[in-house]
Structure formats: C-alpha cells, structure tokens
Give the backbone structure.
Amino acid sequence: MKKISHLFTFLLLYFLFHSCIKKEETEPLNQNEIIPIQVTQHSGKTFSTGNKLSKASVYPGGGVMIQAFYWDVPSGGTWWDTVAEKIPSWQQAGIESIWLPPATKGQNGAYSMGYDPTDYFDFGNYNQNGSVETRFGSKTELVTLITTAHNYGIQVFADIVLNHNSGGQSEYNYFTQSNTWTDFSQIASGKFKRSQYDFHPNDLHSNDSGSFGGFPDLCHDKTYVQDWLWNRSDGVGKYYRDVMKFDGWRFDYVKGFEPWVVKEWNSHIGGFSVGEYWDSNVNTLEWWANSANSSVFDFACYYKMHDAFDGNNLSLLKDDMMWKRNPFKAVTFVSNHDTNIIYNKMLAYAYILTHEGYPTIFYRDYEEWLDKNKMNNLIWIHNYKATGTTTILYADNDEYIARRNGYNGNPGLIVYLNNSNNWLERWVPTNWYSTQIKDFTGNSNWYPTTQSGGWVKIQAPPKSYTIWSVNQ
C-alpha cells in the first residue's frame, strides 16, 4: 500500500510538472500586460512620392531616400561623380531616391555648400564667384548623375533655398537708408536679376516670417519673384524640372517664409516635396504640412528617438509624432548634415525603417559610420515587409514592440527593440494564426509557430532588435 501511495505521488508530481512546462511553452503568461494601441487609422496603403516611374512602385513597403551629401563634402568638383558611381549599388540595396545639396553657385563659389545662393541658373557652367564649377562639379557632371539615377529607376530631389540669397553687389537701399548687398543685376546667367525691391524691407512690407544669418531676405509677395520662381516657363522651378530633370524638392529653412510659397511652387511645378521646418512640436509640423501641401521632416520623431534610445526610456515612443498624425506627409530621419544627436543609431534606424512615413538614410551613416550589411538588411525589410497600419503592442524603459498590420496580401511585421543589457522575451498578439514566423534580421534563430489565437513568444538580443514576419 505504501509503494502504491509513493507511485501515486510520483505520478501526480510528474503530471503537474509537465503541465507547467507545457503551459509555459504554449500560453502567453503575461497576456494581461499587452494592451495594443492602434496608432494609425487609414486604408493601409504605402507612402508614395507620386512618381509612377519610381522604383518604389515595385516595393510593397515603399521606398527609402538617402541624403547624398554631408556638411563640407570634399571640394574640388568631384562630388557629383562620387555620387554617380554609387548609384548602381544604392539601387541594388533598395534605395529609390536621392536628395542632393543645393546645386547652383553660391557666394563662396567652389567652396560653397550651396546654402548661400547667388545665381539659380549657374550649375557650374559660368565663371563667377571665383570659379566655374561649384564645389560639387560641373553642370555636365550633374546632368550625368541625374541621368544615371533615372536609368536605375532612382528619383533625384533638389535642395531649394528660397528664403535668402548671397553674393550680390552693394547698392544704396532706399528702404534701409544704408548700403545693402542686394544688387544681383550682374549675375552671369542673366536670369532672375534681383534688386533691393525684391528683398525685405521694400515698398510692400518690412519682413516675412523670418530672415537667416543677415543674408538678403527674398520677398515672395513680389509678382516679379513669383514669376521667376514658379510662373515663367523658363523660371527656376520649371527649369529644374524640365531641363535639369529633378523629380522633387527639399525646401530649406521653411520657417523663414509662409507655407503658401511652397504650396504655390507645388501647384505650378509638381513633384515630391518636403520642408525643413525645424520644430519638435507635432502640431506645428502638421499645420505647416497641411498649409504647404507638402511632406515635412518629422523632427518630433527625431527628438523622441533621441530621448527614448539615448535616455533609456523606450516608452516615449508611444508619444505623438508627425508620422502618427499623417504618415503620408512625414519624412523620418536619424541624422542629417545639420544635426547628429542620436547615439544609438542602429535602434533608431530599426525604428524608422519598420514604421510608417518616408525614411531617410544619412550618407555618412550608410557609407562610413554604421554596418552597411545591417543597414541593407533594414532597407530590404522596409521595402518588402513594412506594410499596413501600425499598432504599438508594448513599451517600457527597455522594450518596445510594434506591429505593422499588413496590406494587400503582404503580412506585415513585428519589430522588437531591446535597449537593455540582456536578452528579452515576450508573448505578443499577431495577425498570423498557426503560422511559422522568423526573425528576418538573423539576430534570433527562433522559428516559432503562432497559436491558433495568434499569440507567439519572440525574443530580442541586448542593445539590438529583431523583426518578425511569416516565414515565406
């Protein structure tokens, strides 16, 4: 009888032990901790620049832009050639658009980064301001670059500086009662000559939204200025579009003038556009984007990523950002030629390349500072897996998990960001049922199968990320 009792006790303990093991393997023990937050509400369609000839049209997740320069790229007129040589490998990696620096002659001639424009029609083909070529090269080399990009299905976006000019001659200014550098009557191209009447202050008003660095501040209320910028068939916008063959525009320092200026440019010239409105207030970004009928750089997202990844508080990623307000007018980025404050860049790139909006990669991050294989992997994931609306599944100081809900037959993905020093695991709800999934980054070797209700356990390595989707 005693032996039977011991046997019964053994069998009971064995059964309870294996029941617990089975439960741990198959049931989401912390299911009550997951409260999904649906972030975006729309049809699920992909961000588009509107160019049907773009390579983005073949990517379910849309395209990726690269900022194809940095501050003080090598002078000597070789930069256009440098970029052109990289076009084939960029296209192979999945990059579908490039943003070039201001391409026309600035006050500093061969040393200018282009943000001090003198002659909007001198692309390195006139001898003025001390050189023929710009810092980046000649007009012929620029045309070759653009043609090469188009041959590979890549769009080219021009950086446009409309707020201010530089490099004019001194003239007596009736409105300031002093001499100002506002005489642009001697520019070499002979097109869009300007004088004190075309800048602030003038006979219309004393100022607009803002000036920059003491440069002559262009007045867009002048009919003459509007004609040369977007109305004339041989004006700046249509020359850039029809002769130089640019596909879109990045507008510099749009805080300096009213959003109707960009709206007018877009309505007359067309093409993709994005404005640099340097402000972390998402309400302000949304106001500008809607008023200008343009995309805007998502500085709200940029600063939140800095606080989240470098401040060890990933719960901040639940906060409001432009891509959550309107993913079709948000251009996300991790760094650019002006600012580079995010230290934990790979987590930040994993974030923007799995979330909505139009992600931008910085040249030096891609070509010099980060692991290019990992960057290419994230670009591929973005282009082929990052589809549909966004649901945040979990966020705390160390963890952030979000789901892209898929679109048009594409299953979407789940991204798991881990900012801790340890491997982490968590049960999450998916849109996939009784389906094997895998981590497309290769950071995990798990091949879990989702439960009949869609739940599954996933993991992420320390200070890294995993991105999961259907194993197909």
Remarks:
- Residues 2-26 form the longest helix (25 residues).
- The domain at 47-297 is CATH 3.20.20.80 (TIM Barrel).
